[in-house]
Write a structure and sequence with these properties.
alpha+beta, Alpha-Beta Plaits, three-stranded antiparallel beta sheet, 8 helices, globular
């Protein structure tokens, strides 16, 4: 007996072979169901990160893994922190060992494949940390390429993934220009940050925001003019990652340096 994922995967392959449009299948997707139950016209969730306040402690990464059932020792995570080091001779180094789950306890830069670069303090011109997570794009390419509707966008802007519908094709992982998606090591389905939707929809903070002891992370409603996050985004100098892709990311940064990729 085929599982739902096997059935959907075979259906998609069959439709492609017959050159039939996927809309002809009339699949009832999670997005359709959610649209019937929810009216969030007054809410659009956005994230604000202050890079000046991030110290690379990794508490946010630990909290995210625990909250969202990402195996602690797996080398994947929904959110991570990158360390950037610019030396006085103009060289740039960046690393994020285990997503910075355990923070950064040494000046040695992890170059990968067991190689490290030992940088002395007197050689450093500047160094800083940059947290990253799903950008919850206004125009999410991952939603556009999902053939079965497993990746969908809610009325309040959050892009979610339904594990029961995901067939593991990997199209969304390839489509994301920010590299925030991965395969869950247990469920073998597409995975990413969802702004802890199960928490914020109940009036709670995300796990990473709650865990950050320095206030480097904040979540808010951009449609509420009195929201502190909204006030900051509208009145201060903020930046987004890779704006040239036209995805309209909804994660805003304070103090984003030009070296950040």
């Amino acid at each position: 007996m085929f599982s739902r994922r096997e059935f959907l995967k075979n259906t998609i392959k069959g439709a492609a072979g017959l050159a039939l449009p996927l809309t002809a299948l009339e699949l009832i997707t999670p997005e359709m169901i959610l649209a019937l139950k929810q009216d969030s016209a007054k809410t659009r969730w956005v994230f604000l990160i202050d890079t000046y306040k991030c110290v690379g402690c990794g508490f946010c990464v630990k909290a995210c893994k625990t909250e969202n059932e990402i195996p602690y020792d797996a080398n994947v995570t929904r959110t991570w922190v990158e360390r950037y080091v610019v030396t006085k001779d103009g060289r740039l180094y960046a690393d994020s060992p285990k997503g910075a789950r355990d923070g950064f306890t040494t000046n040695k830069i992890d170059l990968g494949l067991g190689n490290y670069k030992d940088i002395k303090k007197e050689e450093i011109n500047k160094a800083f940390f940059v947290p990253k997570l799903c950008n919850q794009c206004e125009n999410p390419p991952c939603v556009q390429v999902c053939p079965v509707g497993a990746t969908y966008q809610t009325a309040d802007g959050v892009v979610l993934v339904d594990r029961k519908w995901c067939i593991g094709c990997g199209y969304c992982i390839m489509a994301c220009p920010y590299g925030v998606r991965f395969f869950h090591p247990v469920y073998n389905t597409a995975e990413k940050c969802n702004f802890c939707y199960h928490r914020i929809s109940k009036g709670m903070k995300t796990a990473c925001v709650e865990a950050c002891p320095f206030g480097a992370r904040k979540i808010g409603n951009i449609k509420d003019p009195n929201d502190p996050v909204t006030v900051t985004i509208l009145t201060e100098r903020v930046s987004v990652l890779k704006s040239e892709y036209g995805t309209k990311p909804q994660v805003y940064y304070i103090g984003l340096s030009e070296e950040v990729r």
